[in-house]
Amino acid sequence: QVHPVESGGGSVQAGGSLTLSCTAPGFTSHNCDMDWYRLVAEKERERVSSISADGSTTYADSIKGRFTIPADKAKDIVYLQMNDLKPEDTAMYFCKTHGFGWCFENWGQGTQVSVSS
Question: CB within 10 Å: which end of the chain, N or C, has fewer?
């Protein structure tokens, strides 16, 4: 199995941008879908965006039009490009493999994003 590793979090002002990276060796060769989630204390975990093995993408309504989820399959990296950040985007962001067998539910440790107004 794989242990995804997220990076790229940090603190920005509202309106700024960040790009998160998720390195998950093997997700391409195993045809995993990949998800980005975020968690705010005392709130439910929210699935922010997903990219399937065939490249199709989905986005939560809360971030649609501001975030994108490109992938570099040659490097087994999935990104979360976040633009026009808002204070309500403040959260711990996690990536996860999605699928059956080898792809099933491999979570990273998360990276913190803080957006100030």
Answer: C
